[in-house]
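Working notes for the structural subgroup meeting. M.R. asked for a predicted model of this chain before we commit to crystallization trials. I am recording the input and output together here so anyone reviewing the notebook later can reproduce the run.

Input as submitted:
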Amino acid sequence: MNTPLVTPTPTKQRGITHGTSSSTLADVLERILDKGLVIAGDIKVKIADVELLTIQIRLLICSVDKAREMGIDWWTTSPYLNPKLAPATVQTEEINARIARLEAMQQAPVPLAREAVPVAVETPVR
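Returned structure, recorded in C-alpha cell form:
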C-alpha cells in the first residue's frame, strides 16, 4: 500500500470569473428602458476667446413609465400629440366648408362665354 508522505493542505484559491454570459440586444434595451440612459454634451464654437455658438444637448432614453416616475410627461399636454387638446374645431369646420364649396364650383359646368357683339349706341345731338 502506497500512502503519500505529505498530504496536500487545501488552499483557498480565488476563482477567476470570466464574462462568458452574453446579453442580447433585447436584454440591453430592456435594461436601458428600465433604468434610463442620459447622454449630455456641450458644443461651443469660439474664435479668439469669443464664444459664437453654444449648443447644449441633453438626451434621455427611458420607458414612458420611468419618464412619468421622474416627472416628465410633456406629451400629455401637447396639442399636437394629444387629440383631446387639438385646436378648436370651429376653424376646421370652416376650412372643410370652404373646401366643399370649392369642389362644388369645380364640378359645376362652366357656362361658355358668349361672343361680344358690338352694340351701336346713338347719342343725341343737341
